């Protein structure tokens, strides 16, 4: 027996209605099809016609070849699938969820064209709170990763060539752009303000995160926030004074990038005073720490300082301690030393006389 479900969806362009028809056999789903409309009556009519066809022709197998799917529904599959969603970063997941609220989500994946992509980017840049072309670039690249696996992973048709046709135009007219290289380094005064602000926040009766300790660990170890909240007590070697960071970020490999770094005495002292109530040394959500950082910056009047900038600050301080670029790369985990040479080392040199 097929069932009908009509879902009301609020989008920037107005209210939409998604009609979904499902059929089960022996408590197992054997058919599902959905389509989005601007009117509820149209959605209901379409769903009833699908049910009628199923009654007349019989319910096809779920394994039968699928022809088309809305991009919004394809994104939902991608986000919910245990394989494609595995190791999905916070930024990419947030961008993909947001994409479902735009008109491009209502385009059939097999009918996606370069024009659809260009139109989406133009509309994004015309929003009241217009994003930078670098931000819109994320929309395009993350959507591409979804489109590319529509067939192999989910059995749906999708136009995998639309991006190749659109990107040259998007770049030529400045509708998308690569992120600018950041050279933001906090001053001594800003670091003091940040520590004071974080101490104030963690002293609140409802707070349970040692924000100040995590702040100092970020600088002392050059770890990313996600790495700090992931390392375990088993990763710590007190005898050697080292910490193993597992599966460190690497554009070429997602797994197996283990990196053992030396810990300064200050870092060891911070780690030793953490409670061993859980497996992780810092068993907190990276998103919670990041949100606390943003609120602190607003309260303390610190402008345009990202939490990730502390990683760069840590590398600069390593240089100022007298470590050479190879030693620094062992701690930061950079496989390409040119990254340090072009960014972190330059930052350290340019600010040595002003600090």
TrEMBL record:
Q: Where are the transmembrane segments?
A: none
The name this protein carries in UniProt is Site-specific integrase
Query: DNA-binding as a keyword?
Result: yes
Which family, according to the similarity comment? Belongs to the 'phage' integrase family.
- UniProt xrefs under SUPFAM superfamilies: DNA breaking-rejoining enzymes
The answer to whether the entry has keyword Zinc is no
- Ranges for domain Tyr recombinase come to 181-355
The root-end lineage is:
Bacteria, Pseudomonadati, Pseudomonadota, Gammaproteobacteria, Vibrionales
Keywords in alphabetical order, please. DNA integration, DNA recombination, DNA-binding
Under InterPro entries, the record lists: DNA_brk_join_enz, Integrase-like_cat_sf, Integrase_catalytic, Tyrosine_recombinase_XerCD
């Amino acid at each position: 027996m097929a069932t009908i479900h009509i879902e009301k969806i609020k989008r920037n362009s107005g209210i939409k209605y998604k009609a979904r028809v499902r059929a089960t056999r022996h408590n197992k789903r054997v058919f599902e099809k959905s389509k989005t409309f601007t009117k509820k009556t149209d959605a209901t009519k379409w769903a009833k016609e699908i049910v009628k066809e199923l009654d007349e022709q019989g319910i096809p197998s779920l394994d039968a070849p699928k022809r088309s799917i809305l991009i919004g529904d394809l994104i939902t599959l991608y986000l919910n699938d245990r394989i494609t969603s595995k190791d999905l970063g916070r930024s990419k997941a947030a961008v993909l969820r947001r994409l479902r609220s735009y008109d491009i989500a209502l385009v059939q994946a097999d009918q996606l064209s370069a024009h659809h992509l260009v139109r989406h980017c133009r509309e994004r840049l015309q929003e009241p709170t217009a994003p930078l072309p670098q931000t819109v670039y994320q929309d395009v690249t993350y959507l591409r990763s979804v489109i590319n696996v529509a067939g192999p992973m989910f059995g749906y048709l999708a136009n995998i060539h639309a991006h190749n046709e659109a990107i040259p135009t998007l770049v030529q007219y400045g509708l998308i752009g690569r992120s600018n290289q950041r050279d933001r380094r906090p001053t001594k005064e800003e670091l003091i303000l940040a520590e004071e602000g974080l101490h104030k926040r963690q002293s609140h009766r409802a707070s349970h995160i040692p924000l100040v300790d995590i702040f100092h660990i970020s600088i002392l170890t050059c770890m990313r926030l996600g790495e700090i909240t992931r390392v375990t007590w088993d990763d710590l070697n007190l005898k050697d004074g080292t910490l193993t960071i597992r599966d460190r970020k690497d554009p070429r490999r997602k797994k197996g990038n283990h990196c053992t770094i030396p810990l300064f005495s200050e870092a060891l002292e911070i780690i030793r005073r953490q409670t061993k109530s859980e497996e992780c040394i810092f068993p907190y959500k990276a998103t919670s720490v990041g949100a606390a950082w943003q609120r602190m910056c607003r309260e303390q009047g610190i402008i345009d300082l990202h939490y990730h900038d502390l990683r760069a600050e840590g590398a600069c301080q390593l240089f100022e301690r007298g470590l050479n670029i190879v030693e620094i790369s062992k701690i930061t985990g950079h496989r390409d030393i040119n990254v340090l040479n072009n960014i972190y080392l330059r930052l350290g040199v340019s600010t040595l006389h002003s600090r």
